[in-house]
Amino acid sequence: MASNVNPTVRRRRLGQELRRLRELKGMTAEEVAERLLVSQSKISRLENGRRSISQRDVRDLCNVYEVEDQRIVDSLMQMAKDSRQQGWWHTFGDIPYSVYIGLETDAASLRVYDPQVVPGLLQTRQYAEALIAGALPETAPADIEKRVQVRMRRQERITAPENPLRLWTVLDEAALRRVVGNKALMREQLEHLVEQSQLPHVTVQVIPFEMGAHPGLNGQYAILEFPDAADSSVVYIEGVTSDLYLEKANDVQKYSVMYEHLRAQALNVEQSLQFIQKIAKEYADD
Q1: Global pTM?
Q2: Which residues lie closer than 8 Å to 262 by C-beta, 6 or more apart?
Q3: What is the mean pLDDT of residues 90-96?
């Protein structure tokens, strides 16, 4: 197997395979934990890809599951080795949402709904700086700069010449009206949003205030889909102290249906573009 793989995605694939082997054996996570003298939570973390998996972990689990085909064992051991490599984001030190970045880096498409701010992949540097400083008032300037650099690096998925990320964004009007930084900065941000929306793989829609109640009032979320059919889609919900990742098919389906309702209630692409341009002009006229 190639070694230059995304470690986050490799952990997910390995975890899914280990879960499949456990289920084929007819064992519960609790039973496996008892056999290995570890906690049940460790088995769960290994299977959901949130924890690094050592080759020893893989060997022990394969023994418990009585995997006789050495080729399967060797393949899983290599996946464990690959999953412990570092992604580009690790060079920036401790990033709170590093799991998400790993998923986003490998995703084929991303559907985002944001009721409050312009999504990170479409932010200007100045907007990102002002937003992070305002949202995290006790953060040191050096840490703010690190977060901004990571955000700018993430945006390379949008401008990549080959296989760019397919991005669909639905914004609430509040994200356009909230003055982050100052009005001149907001004008530049909205103009940048219009520019990015011209890319063939980027779609931006807006839900104006006059639409009233809609399915996105519960807050921001993103749906990531991957090029490999073996990688299940993920719903990502950002939190203050921890993030939520939903991977069960039923959960992903519910959020996907909700996103379709959001797209249906939003202005169409052309109307959204005109709407954004109108608000940008209001900032310029002030």
Answers
A1: 0.77
A2: 113, 170, 207, 214, 215, 216
A3: 69
